[in-house]
Amino acid sequence: MNGLNLYSKIEKHLDFQAEVEELYEAFLKICEELNVKKVIDIGCGQGEFLLSLEVSGMVAFGTDLSSEQVKVCKEKGLDVACIDISDVKEKFDCATAIFDVLNYMDKQILEKFVKDTYNLLEEGGYFIFDINTLYGFEEVAQGSLNINLADKFIGIDAFFGDKKLITDIVLFSKDKDGKYMKEEDFITQYYHEKNAIKKLLTKSGFDIKQIINFHLHSDDKADKLIFICQK
After folding, report:
1. For residue 36, with 0-12 CB atoms within 10 Å meaning exposed, 13-18 middle and 19 or more buried, which class applies?
2. What is the architecture of the domain spanning 4-133+192-230?
3. What is the CATH number of domain 136-189?
């Protein structure tokens, strides 16, 4: 999970909020249609989806491996923890993993993650998640972005190759004396083919109910797939 704490420091300055809200709305609608009551949001980030769940009357618990993100959630009064899901003892009738969570895992880690998620669920519980398509990686995620602000400079450079997206992040922050402090790190995301995910889910005991082509950036090509699975 390299770079996620640094990413949490710059996330609010990135122009992704409209896309995030659109995806959250889609997931919330699915949860409501499935009539789930108790949800664990894995990779909960800064807690926006947890808040939506609570407003809709669901019991919501979040986990994230970024201590910075969990800190933000707790400041909002949300029930969150900075722990691996294998250490969660409660059972839920739904687990969500939204906005690239599974793409941060290589094949080996992903296999364990899916099994651990299965164990989190009550019998008949749902696992809902998204993954990036090849189009999403090659045409949407790849590229460079520079952001100049009054007290900081953010540089992002993302390159996709060999089924991996490497995103380099540089943050220059101005201190009270006017000097800049430099922080840099990187994030690795992995492209997982649709059929490979289907095989993994089936092997782990999940029944795939639906796979939705989701269009965040193009009407012609889906940049994400949303999986709805049941234990």
Report:
1. buried
2. 3-Layer(aba) Sandwich (3.40)
3. 2.20.25.110
